């Protein structure tokens, strides 16, 4: 029984890895399930033993990303973080940026999937609000402490997440050498410094 579970886990991991590679090379919409199983070295029928559809696999990859972000703050039982504190804000941005940067193929797939649902489906907004729930909770805490925010916590959290995710989608990683053409070669440090300063002044107010 244990051997069977191990084999199933290995197959699922292989399918996920193959999907990331295919999404990075061909995009989500142009990748077929048979492309994924072939790249994973598995029979086509094994896919449906683990995932109901390509979208279901994508949701599993997104859950893995959420797990990576959650691990960064595991064991943190202190008070809700104060995002008007420069160090705490940058820490949150660095975690989110690192996860998005390390899963750029999944970010590309998520954008393609949401856009394919159409502009009036609300898919992008629903995904943004779900993915930025931790930021929203921190912002709600600030509001409860009397901090004047630029707007509703859910809206501000989604705006922050939208800015981060679009940058992760649009900027090729410098380390891969893929920042060709007109793509600027910004380092992660430059990006985090700029975003931290921009958001800090927006959250903490003028003069901070």
Summarize the structure in short.
The chain has nine helices and no strands. It is mostly helical. The chain has two domains: 1-51, Orthogonal Bundle (Arc Repressor Mutant, subunit A), CATH 1.10.10; 53-204, Tetracycline Repressor, domain 2 (Orthogonal Bundle), CATH 1.10.357.
CATH topology of the largest domain: Tetracycline Repressor, domain 2
Give the C-alpha Rg: 19 Å
Order of helices and strands: HHHHHHHHH
Name the CATH superfamily classification of the largest domain: Tetracycline Repressor, domain 2
Shape: elongated
Characterize the biggest β-sheet.
none
Question: Whole-number average pLDDT?
Answer: 87
CATH class of the largest domain: Mainly Alpha
Number of strands: 0
CATH architecture of the largest domain: Orthogonal Bundle
How much of the residues is beta strand, in percent?
under 5%
Number of H- or I-type helical stretches: 9
Terminal CA distance: 59 Å
* Helicity, as a percent range: 55-70%
Class by SSE composition: mainly alpha
How many structural domains? 2
Low-confidence stretches: 176-180
